[in-house]
């Protein structure tokens, strides 16, 4: 524990601040100095009186406690234990909310009486603005654990106190409240700091664990034995492995900041993929797994799956590769396309057409901008058809290096080339046997490979690279592309014969900005991302999101909603502006300015058009009058108007 300056030195320093506006840098803690300045700026004076308004009445306190139910429920048992540790030492244990209002206090009668005199009682506000420098208010303002001793308090009336406070943070890094031990300054104990800090972490862990049912929980520590202790790290993951929150230790060990919530994938942070961790849990639920962070540091991890999921789902060990972009598991049976349908007319028409060819030997070509959901659509077609019990094999032709694509697709014989597996490979086409082969970004397939694919499609046989017998194959073919394949074929960039072969039916999926079901789609995405609770969206925000162009389409939008959902606190149920990532807020603001400018240009154009119309009417009136006064003599009327007769005839016809 640091040794604070003497009472006299503190008074002199505070006096200097009052008289000269500066504070000696030596001896005064930087947090205290900053807080003194804030207290002064709030209009407080060390000997000043307190206002009655800084105390919530009974009804206000009741409302506050109801709104902080979760925090209170998980803090009370910890506070009981804490109080047992400090009993008999002229102290009290206090819980305040994030605005510094005291919600629960435990103390001995004689000290409580003294504390009441300085309003250390439930309902009182200990925000710095009201009480000047004090552990509760200053811990809130500085966002860190702090001890304020004797004369460090800004108000002289509080100088008999020594107080230690620690903030309580939510899983998404939001300040929920403060835990504090306040006592007589002569009875201060160096261990108080550690006690308060540990108790605050215990409350945080209880809160995180209690609200984590919809998420996968990782309990971690650098030592195996550290798991389950108050010092353990906790990281929360969505079902598909995105980090959605964690306690401070967990986030620190993962080298994550609150800004990473919603955008960090666990498979990119650890050397053991999520599927493997889940599978390990299935076999040995209480055994921590040793993992390495990608920088080589070792951690022990105990995984707790989402509640109610594991018994029904055996995790898959067969795919140990980190999944850069995990996709939801396929719908078991039924009309999977109908389940994706949220009402857009063009999307529905595409689905209706695709439904008709599902199960028939007609290749489907899905066109649409990147991220519109082409692969999801293809999976739904597969899951809706008679081949749904067989594999759906997806290959992104743009992602496989050109020199490997042939081996990847068609397989190879043992030792076919340097670096090949010793026992050869059947190839992805054969893996799709009986099911569906999905060739994404088919437009990016090299021309030589296009010829090979065409042969396979015609002959329905594959022969592996490097020799070996041809093998008969049977699969449904779905291809997807973001480019206009017909144009590419016309320009010779894509083989026309292959184009006609894969284009049994072409469907075009609409970009997000043109979808007519934005509100329903948004609701569906939010529900999928928050399976355990009802979450909505503020109507103004929905409208702004609807007007955004979304160049990354559904992929981008789903990611934004995922992050926004992760930013919701446990007691929040409505996504609003504050929950959006900063870059999206910037984009939306920029878009709003562009829209305003476009509206202004449009209205100017309309005004200009309408005044042009008025001018035309005026001219016609003038011409009619001139003709009338010239009794139909057009040459005279033209002379009156100062124009030629031909011009008069021409203008009358406009
Ligand atoms: N209807 C939907 N419901 C929920 N999420 C969706 C939906 N459609 C798309 N997504 C999200 O968008 C992401 C992109 O979808 P998908 O990979 O199917 O698009 P794509 O058009 O094939 O993209 P690319 O052209 O880049 O291959 C998915 O991972 C998913 O998170």
UniProtKB/TrEMBL annotation:
<keyword id="KW-0547">Nucleotide-binding</keyword>
<dbReference type="Pfam" id="PF00158">
    <property type="entry name" value="Sigma54_activat"/>
</dbReference>
<dbReference type="Pfam" id="PF02954">
    <property type="entry name" value="HTH_8"/>
</dbReference>
<dbReference type="InterPro" id="IPR027417">
    <property type="entry name" value="P-loop_NTPase"/>
</dbReference>
<dbReference type="Pfam" id="PF01590">
    <property type="entry name" value="GAF"/>
</dbReference>
<dbReference type="InterPro" id="IPR025662">
    <property type="entry name" value="Sigma_54_int_dom_ATP-bd_1"/>
</dbReference>
<keyword id="KW-0805">Transcription regulation</keyword>
<dbReference type="InterPro" id="IPR058031">
    <property type="entry name" value="AAA_lid_NorR"/>
</dbReference>
<dbReference type="InterPro" id="IPR025943">
    <property type="entry name" value="Sigma_54_int_dom_ATP-bd_2"/>
</dbReference>
<keyword id="KW-0067">ATP-binding</keyword>
<keyword id="KW-0804">Transcription</keyword>
<dbReference type="InterPro" id="IPR003593">
    <property type="entry name" value="AAA+_ATPase"/>
</dbReference>
<dbReference type="InterPro" id="IPR003018">
    <property type="entry name" value="GAF"/>
</dbReference>
<dbReference type="InterPro" id="IPR002197">
    <property type="entry name" value="HTH_Fis"/>
</dbReference>
<protein>
    <submittedName>
        <fullName>Acetoin catabolism regulatory protein</fullName>
    </submittedName>
</protein>
<feature type="domain" description="Sigma-54 factor interaction">
    <location>
        <begin position="354"/>
        <end position="566"/>
    </location>
</feature>
<dbReference type="InterPro" id="IPR009057">
    <property type="entry name" value="Homeodomain-like_sf"/>
</dbReference>
<feature type="compositionally biased region" description="Pro residues">
    <location>
        <begin position="323"/>
        <end position="332"/>
    </location>
</feature>
<keyword id="KW-0238">DNA-binding</keyword>
<feature type="region of interest" description="Disordered">
    <location>
        <begin position="311"/>
        <end position="335"/>
    </location>
</feature>
<dbReference type="InterPro" id="IPR029016">
    <property type="entry name" value="GAF-like_dom_sf"/>
</dbReference>
<dbReference type="InterPro" id="IPR002078">
    <property type="entry name" value="Sigma_54_int"/>
</dbReference>
<dbReference type="Pfam" id="PF25601">
    <property type="entry name" value="AAA_lid_14"/>
</dbReference>
């Amino acid at each position: 524990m640091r040794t604070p300056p003497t009472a006299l030195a503190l008074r002199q320093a505070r006096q200097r601040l009052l008289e000269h506006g500066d504070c000696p840098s030596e001896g005064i803690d930087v947090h205290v100095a900053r807080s003194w300045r804030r207290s002064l700026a709030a209009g407080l004076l060390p000997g000043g009186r307190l206002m009655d308004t800084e105390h919530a009445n009974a009804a206000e306190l009741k409302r506050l406690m109801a709104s902080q139910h979760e925090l209170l429920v998980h803090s009370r048992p910890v506070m009981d234990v804490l109080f047992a540790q400090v009993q008999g030492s002229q102290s009290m244990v206090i819980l305040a909310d994030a605005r510094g209002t005291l919600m629960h206090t435990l103390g001995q009668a004689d000290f409580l009486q003294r504390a009441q005199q300085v309003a250390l009682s439930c309902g009182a506000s200990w925000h710095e603005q009201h009480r000047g420098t004090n552990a509760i208010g200053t811990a809130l303002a500085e966002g860190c654990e702090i001890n304020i001793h004797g004369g460090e308090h800004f108000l002289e009336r509080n100088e008999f106190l020594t107080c230690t406070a620690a903030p309580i943070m939510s899983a998404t890094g939001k300040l929920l409240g403060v835990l504090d031990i306040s006592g007589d300054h002569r009875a201060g104990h160096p261990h108080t700091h550690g006690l308060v800090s540990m108790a605050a972490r215990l409350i945080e862990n209880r809160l995180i664990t209690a609200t984590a049912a919809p998420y996968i929980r990782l309990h971690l520590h650098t030592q195996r034995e550290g798991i389950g202790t108050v010092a353990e790290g906790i990281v929360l993951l969505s079902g598909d492995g995105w980090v959605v929150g964690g306690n401070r230790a967990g986030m620190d060990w993962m080298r994550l900041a609150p800004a990473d919530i919603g955008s960090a994938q666990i498979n990119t942070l650890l050397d053991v993929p999520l599927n493997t961790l889940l599978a390990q849990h299935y076999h040995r639920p209480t055994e921590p797994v040793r993992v390495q962070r990608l920088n080589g540091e070792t951690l022990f991890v105990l995984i707790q799956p989402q509640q109610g999921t594991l018994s029904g789902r055996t995790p898959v060990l067969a795919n140990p590769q980190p999944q850069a972009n995990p996709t939801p598991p396929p719908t078991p049976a039924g009309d999977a396309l109908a389940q994706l349908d949220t009402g857009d007319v063009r999307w529905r028409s595409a689905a209706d057409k695709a439904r008709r060819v599902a199960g028939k030997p007609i290749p489907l070509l899905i066109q649409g901008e990147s991220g519109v959901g082409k692969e999801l659509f293809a999976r739904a077609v597969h899951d809706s058809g008679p081949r749904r019990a067989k594999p759906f094999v997806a290959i992104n032709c743009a992602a496989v290096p050109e020199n490997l694509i042939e081996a990847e697709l068609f397989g190879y014989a043992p030792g076919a080339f340097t670096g090949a597996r010793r026992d050869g490979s059947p190839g992805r086409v054969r893996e799709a046997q009986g099911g569906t082969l999905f060739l994404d970004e088919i437009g990016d397939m090299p021309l030589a490979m296009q010829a090979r694919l065409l042969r396979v499609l015609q002959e329905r046989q594959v022969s592996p690279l490097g020799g070996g017998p041809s093998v008969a194959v049977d699969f449904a073919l779905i291809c997807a592309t973001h480019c206009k394949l017909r144009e590419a074929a016309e320009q010779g960039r894509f083989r026309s014969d292959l184009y006609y072969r894969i284009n049994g039916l072409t469907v075009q999926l609409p970009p997000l900005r043109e979808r007519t079901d934005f509100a329903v789609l948004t609701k569906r995405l939010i529900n999928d991302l928050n399976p355990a609770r009802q979450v909505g969206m503020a109507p103004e925000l929905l409208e702004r999101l609807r007007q955004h162009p979304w160049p990354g389409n559904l992929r981008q939008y789903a990611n934004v909603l995922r992050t926004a959902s992760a930013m919701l606190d446990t007691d929040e149920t409505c996504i609003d502006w504050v929950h959006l990532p900063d870059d999206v807020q910037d984009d939306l603001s920029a878009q709003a300015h562009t829209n305003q400018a476009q509206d202004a240009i449009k209205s100017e154009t309309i005004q200009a058009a309408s005044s042009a119309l008025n001018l035309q009417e005026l001219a016609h009136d003038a011409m009619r009058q001139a003709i009338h006064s010239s009794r139909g003599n057009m040459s005279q009327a033209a002379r009156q108007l100062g124009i030629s007769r031909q011009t008069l005839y021409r203008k009358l016809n406009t």
